[in-house]
Amino acid sequence: MLQKIKYGMVGGGEGAFIGDIHRIASRIDNRFELVAGALSSNPERAARSAENIGIDAARSYASFEQMASAEKNREDGIDAVVIVTPNHMHFPVAKAFLEQGIAVICDKPATLDLEQAQTLAKIIRDNNSFFRLTHNYTGYPLVRYARELVQEGVLGSIRLVQVEYAQDWLSSKEEDTDNKQAKWRTDPSKSGAGGSLGDIGTHAFNLAQFMSNLSVQEVCADIDAFVDGRVLDDNAHVMLRFNNGAKGTLWCSQVAPGNANALKIRIYGDKAGLEWAQEDPNELWLSPLGEPTQKIIRAGHTVTEVANRICRTPAGHPEGYLEGFANLYRDIADALLLHKAGKPIPAHLQLVPGIDEGVAGLAFVESVVASSKANSQWVALND
Amino acid sequence: MLQKIKYGMVGGGEGAFIGDIHRIASRIDNRFELVAGALSSNPERAARSAENIGIDAARSYASFEQMASAEKNREDGIDAVVIVTPNHMHFPVAKAFLEQGIAVICDKPATLDLEQAQTLAKIIRDNNSFFRLTHNYTGYPLVRYARELVQEGVLGSIRLVQVEYAQDWLSSKEEDTDNKQAKWRTDPSKSGAGGSLGDIGTHAFNLAQFMSNLSVQEVCADIDAFVDGRVLDDNAHVMLRFNNGAKGTLWCSQVAPGNANALKIRIYGDKAGLEWAQEDPNELWLSPLGEPTQKIIRAGHTVTEVANRICRTPAGHPEGYLEGFANLYRDIADALLLHKAGKPIPAHLQLVPGIDEGVAGLAFVESVVASSKANSQWVALND
Amino acid sequence: MLQKIKYGMVGGGEGAFIGDIHRIASRIDNRFELVAGALSSNPERAARSAENIGIDAARSYASFEQMASAEKNREDGIDAVVIVTPNHMHFPVAKAFLEQGIAVICDKPATLDLEQAQTLAKIIRDNNSFFRLTHNYTGYPLVRYARELVQEGVLGSIRLVQVEYAQDWLSSKEEDTDNKQAKWRTDPSKSGAGGSLGDIGTHAFNLAQFMSNLSVQEVCADIDAFVDGRVLDDNAHVMLRFNNGAKGTLWCSQVAPGNANALKIRIYGDKAGLEWAQEDPNELWLSPLGEPTQKIIRAGHTVTEVANRICRTPAGHPEGYLEGFANLYRDIADALLLHKAGKPIPAHLQLVPGIDEGVAGLAFVESVVASSKANSQWVALND
Amino acid sequence: MLQKIKYGMVGGGEGAFIGDIHRIASRIDNRFELVAGALSSNPERAARSAENIGIDAARSYASFEQMASAEKNREDGIDAVVIVTPNHMHFPVAKAFLEQGIAVICDKPATLDLEQAQTLAKIIRDNNSFFRLTHNYTGYPLVRYARELVQEGVLGSIRLVQVEYAQDWLSSKEEDTDNKQAKWRTDPSKSGAGGSLGDIGTHAFNLAQFMSNLSVQEVCADIDAFVDGRVLDDNAHVMLRFNNGAKGTLWCSQVAPGNANALKIRIYGDKAGLEWAQEDPNELWLSPLGEPTQKIIRAGHTVTEVANRICRTPAGHPEGYLEGFANLYRDIADALLLHKAGKPIPAHLQLVPGIDEGVAGLAFVESVVASSKANSQWVALND
Predict the structure, then answer these.
(1) pLDDT band at residue C370, thresholds of 50, 70 and 90?
(2) Is the pLDDT confidence value at D383 over 60?
(3) Residue A47: closest CA among chain D residues belongs to which residue?
(4) Between C233 and B2, where is the model more confident?
């Protein structure tokens, strides 16, 4: 049996959303064991949450600083920490654990702002630390297969990347209700310079670069807060220019009624086009120019190792969001064991985003905000 | 039986595409009779084409000028002319017939450039002429129903309009083959300042304004000719600002493999969102905030008079492109009879676009081109 | 210009549904001219209907018998009659016109019962008469293309044919309202032994045989009238055995809420499967075993002459029910001209169903009813 | 933290399919711990498999009999056994563990034949044993919601149930390759009287009864083995009669190219219809008669506690096959703890199928086979 990774969690206590997602994702392939936590900044809630999810009281900490040093000093201390706090805590928590030599698995965006991200990147580089950023949509098998199709030239030279991520849950002033998620995500002190941009725009941006194998060089944007009294954007329109001359648009919105979690990407080259939508993740549509569009299915006949390696069920037995997320955890487990052993990490385990993608994400947010403030001037992504 | 409109056609001879579409559309409801033509600038082809489609040789003309004066002088002369030439001929032909007091039904865009369109608008205004522009997508029943839903406030205050029109037929250098359609549509002298912009972008623009009941005030654009050696754009990304503060994007492309004629629009307000796609024109998706999305079908239970009036088949018996086109012809027939009788034209017959929409379309093309040349500065649509 | 067919119509006056459909379909390609009619058994309504649709009063007849003899005696008499009455009138009307040497275009089912159909078949054979039955779904381009794919062996040996035709408009006792269509279609004296079976089951049956190139040999059925007080079936479940050993099911229903006109067919062979649905007629799904499913589109790249010949618009510009219907009329025009000239009719003009398909349809209805009465014994289709 | 269930597994060693599915499903909610196993009838493979998945060598057994008695005698012995062997072993294994007072979680079908199922039912009844059958499709949230809609009368009186389950993986003689799954599933000694019937038909049958709240009383069937040399059916057509007078069809097939795991159900009542497909499990389509069809989404606004209780992710974050399966495990954990404590099990934990559904499934298989042998006579389901 493969060795299990012992980990702790910061954030993710009662009322949180993404903490439970990480815990399930980490369990699916039985490669992780949750043994410690600083689940809430409220000590009482932290303790109660820890008990509820089966963390030993002795390893439920009142603060992340405590946890970092205590775990560092235990013989059976954690191998990794998972950070699932609001954005503003990502940097201090990551820094604290990295300084103790503990690997970090962090929810996106990497930090509150670009400067923090760059600082974090330097820390990681200087210490050869292990850091992974859970842009979970890169874990879907057909997303990786699509990336491979592009790499292999099936689409020819890429001309266009159209990506969008639409939701509707902030169409009204949800932050004035007792919805915790809405509260912190619309609060610049906790969320950063971007509202929808940071929350979902960074996912769309990451997916566009991941799948197209290209990088965005400039953005031209017009962002809005449509709901009265909201400070951060709830909608962003962004035009994109890529390094190879390709063009694109990125649209993210949390005020588009009828859209639950509609992340969708289309890539067009001179030989073929492809289309993938997160809400139907088991299908990929490939359109070679001049031929019928093909419906490629997860674990189907033409899908290759890059995707099949991370499938658990046969074609037609749908996998979803949690399995995609779990694929990151599986790769992280393998990579972390190699990292701890001082061995090189092979390419197929390097598909999980890290601090470079984190820096790029923050650069994206800040460039978009800057462009919009400058009445939509093109702004370079200097990361 | 309702009186038939006698009409002639300019353009639409052998090898043309849209001429035959207009002829079929005009026949579907039996309200038009084609009796004259100047079907080609090549006299021999004009004569042969006329014979093939059953126009009396005596009324097959070698030039549109000849036709305009000859028909004007016949007692049984045409009531209307249909112009289906390449764009550069729209203005001179329309002018010639309008000057003879003959009504004009013109394919889009109205003219080659904005200046011509404005001149034409003045002629029409000054003479109280009858002019209709066949932005045929406004003829789909569910497009009109969607417009009504917006007008009635079902969507609340409109925040977003996302419109796109993607094709793939110009992904390669099609204009170097013997494809006539490709040749003139990529030639600025015949097509105007816009390539995909003029050909399909104007349809998307018109649909966005028609369905949202809003008008675009500014555009910020980045346009490209991706195919080597092509002069006019084959792709355009445009950000939109509307008169009420709504925002949007318009994407048109003729280099997106897998897209045949993928015109699609989504409109989001603070109460509901809606979505319609031309390739599935018998369905409209309405998403009231906080309720399940509804699949509204043409001629279905909730659809009202504005759409049902122009349906010929019951729900589930699909109507398509030709029927949508025919709806314009039907309304034009009714409106033209009233116009000739000097009677007022009721609102429900004024949904067919006219010269105002034509001027707006050219203003859109020229503003987008200007914005793109200015590295995507916002440019106002001063029409 | 190709010669036009002069025709008259029996039935199809005010309040009728299918008469107007036939008239539009006949106009689309400009090959027919409607010049006579006995549009209603009510003389006043017949006259008024004739005037409304532009038939000369002199050729609006009070009875079909009058019309048959009068038209026979005119030098410019009609070439063909279109029969769009309720089913019980099909036989006498067809007989009357055939006896005058006038070609017959008849809506389905051919007659009220199998005996009539066989008698009619004999008359047609004995006199080498021209008779076409408007099973209009065979006119869809992709239906014909699918048939060709089967003929060419792309599916291999056919094992399964699953066909269904679901509607919901008779879910309540619609025949007790003033809905004329519901009244006669639920009345055995006008509709025959089948309710949903005759109205839509015959279409499904015809399509299954047409597309699979097979014939049904036995049926095993369980039919129901779910609505209280209804005499004829509003739902039928039928198991099928085909001549080559293939099996299948046919389900037709008019009490399935949410279904407007949901005719759908799936055919599976040992090499591939295919699927087509009438409500999305511009798409055909082909699944070669072990390869991705292909979305084949009307007028798309791989579609061949058999379908493209009958397309009027390019891919992505949807054609619908009326165009499919019009394809029958176009082929009938060509075939009738050849028939009148005593020339052979080529294979590609023989795809329109005739009396053989009519006899088969009635044999199907009567066998299904017999099987159901015998508690679902297998009954052979002895036509 | 809730108490974990300690369990062992019989079957599910190397090369198996469903064993791993059960293990993942049991882990997702962290309510189970796998501590023992008799993973293969081959002792060497059993030991190796146990090691690979982290079962202590001391609790990896060479036979299920050994395991049953050894675990019974341990103080920390298993609470439950999961049976994931081929069908012919279900009965002896279940019996052995039940006799030791150990709860049984068994893959479907319950046993090899109806007689065994009835015997097992008696054992369970007589001993008040705990037995659950993993008809996993009942674990999908929207399946349970649909069942509730039916129960609450939203569909009115049910008239029709159309269920189908199509696959293509046995379109060729797969059992002649080294595909273990194909081998035993086509072997009557291991699979029972049904091929596709037992493998997938029982799922379809169970789903039809579960969702409609009805029971099938009679079947009329025609089954086939289309692949040369195959003994068991690979396709079955079945007409259904329900206890309330509703009718239906069940089609299952493993020779339908293009179908991966296409389980789909449609239920029609006199007030509304609904439709659900396993390959798109996050959507349920509800069609109230005379209103637009509604797209109901998992965890969406109108979905109630019966479904939301078993959702782990918000709307738009797709859950799939494994989460549906895990929902059974979660309910089983709660129910088993109550059972062990001698407390009553509330209704919402009784949705997981048990031996009654197992008996019904075998009765279905045997009745269908009997009907088909009798040339499709109606056969009652005497269970």
Answers:
(1) very high
(2) no
(3) D1
(4) C233
- Would the CB atoms of D318 and A259 count as touching at under 8 Å? no
Compute the average pLDDT of residues C93-103: 98
* Structure confidence at residue C1 (pLDDT): 66
To the nearest whole Å, the CA of C139 is away from the closest chain A CA by 22
Instruction: For residue B280, count CB atoms less than 10 angstroms from its CB and return exposed for 0-12, middle for 13-18, buried for 19 or more.
Output: middle
| Cα–Cα distance measured from residue D340 to residue D353, given in angstroms and rounded to the nearest whole number | 19
B164: left (phi over 0), alpha (psi -120 to 50) or beta: beta
In contact, B89 and B10? CB cutoff 8 Å? yes
Instruction: Please report where in the chains the tokens 């359609």 appear, as a residue.
Output: B181
* pLDDT tens string D146-170: 999 999 999 999 999 999 999 999 9
State phi, psi for B136 to the nearest 5 degrees.
-65, -20
CA distance A296 to A273: 13
- Contacts of D150-154 with C-beta under 8 Å, sequence gap 24+, read D150/D211, D150/D212, D150/D213, D150/D267, D150/D269, D150/D274, D151/D213, D153/D271, D154/D271, D154/D272, D154/D286, D154/D288
D215 pLDDT band, cuts 50/70/90, is very high
* Length of chain D (residues): 383
| pLDDT (average), residues A206-210 | 98
Q: What is the pLDDT of residue D199?
A: 97
Tell me, what's the pLDDT at B241?
98
Residues present in chain A in total: 383
A1 confidence band (pLDDT: 50, 70, 90):
low
The separation between CA D136 and the C-alpha centre of its own chain, rounded to angstroms, equals 5
Band of pLDDT at residue C383, cut at 50, 70 and 90: low
Which residue type is seen at A236?
A
Subunits with 3+ C-beta pairs closer than 8 A to B = A, C, D
Per the prediction, chain A carries an average pLDDT of 96
Residue of chain B with shortest Cα separation from A267:
B256
CA distance C351 to chain A (A): 26
> Which amino acid does the sequence have at B103?
A
- Which residues of B fall within a CB distance of 8 Å from A224? 159, 247
All structural domains of chain B: 5-133 (3.40.50.720), 141-315+359-380 (3.30.360.10)
**Pairing label, strands A5-11, A80-84:** parallel
Three-state secondary structure call for residue A210: helix
